Amino acid sequence: MPTIRNINPPPGKTVRFISDLHYGHERCEAPAPAELARTLLTGIDILVVAGDLAETRPGPWRHSGEQFREQLRTECRNRKIELVELAGNHDPDTECLMVRFWEGRVVAMHGHALYKEVAPWGWEFLHHKDTCRKLIRETPHDTLEGRLELSRKMSLLLKPMMRRENIRNKYIRGFLHCFWPPQRPWNIIFCWLNCAGKAERFARRFFPEAEVVILGHFHRSGEWKFGRRRIFSCGAWFKHATPYCVDMKDARILGYTKLQTSR
């Protein structure tokens, strides 16, 4: 399967875009696939998961993440729903990194390619800056394909880190998750505030024909408009985040809707 796919759904087919289920992760709040399917797969023909469907990098969550992913695939097959999976930084083993729909009028991607560092706020990057910058220098990334492949290489390079292991006190664990190292909260806030503008500049450079750009990655839901281009962030099925879906038919937006988690 190519890094970039082109999909032109038949007229009348409904496409639903979501992102960041993070199946397998300890902070995942998505319902189990069988339960999720009863609501999420109703009334649609194609489901697009824009990255981080499951935790599939080497680590403590990989086995359960792969199991949940296969369960969702089965649910889609049983309901004759086409499942389109895009690679995120937590599931870089997924082949496709970006999809163009309706002759490129709509583009879906995870969003980690917007940053050469993939996640400038992440523990992995903050503790391996020199290694990451070396990979950036050595990897051609002037083209769209190069930029997407750099995001995959960076995701494979950075193994999952848990700064909270062996710490029993939940308040200390929570503090470390949010505020350590000190650059982390500032990088998160900066990227949240700038993700829409970053996406607009990325689209203007690499796929200026796109009228709609759909992202995940940032765990912040939102909708923005830049001239004729609309950008959507689907949030996340994650603690302290909210998932949204974008529904489209015949390249028209049907809705941008908040989804129910297992909370």
How are the SSEs ordered, and which strands pair?
Blueprint: E1 4-7, E2 14-18, H1 33-40, E3 46-49, H2 62-78, E4 82-85, E5 98-101, E6 106-109, H3 123-127, H4 129-138, H5 144-157, H6 170-179, H7 183-206, E7 212-215, E8 221-226, E9 229-234, E10 244-249, E11 252-258
Parallel strand pairs: 1-5, 2-3, 3-4, 6-7, 7-9
Antiparallel strand pairs: 2-10, 5-6, 8-9, 10-11
What features would you describe in this structure?
This protein is of the alpha/beta class and 263 residues long. It has a single domain (4-258), classed as 4-Layer Sandwich (Purple Acid Phosphatase, chain A, domain 2), CATH 3.60.21.10. Helix content is 33%, strand content 21%. The protein is built from 7 helices and 11 strands. The protein has a 6-stranded mixed β-sheet, with helices on one face. The termini are far apart. The model has no long low-confidence stretch (mean pLDDT 92).
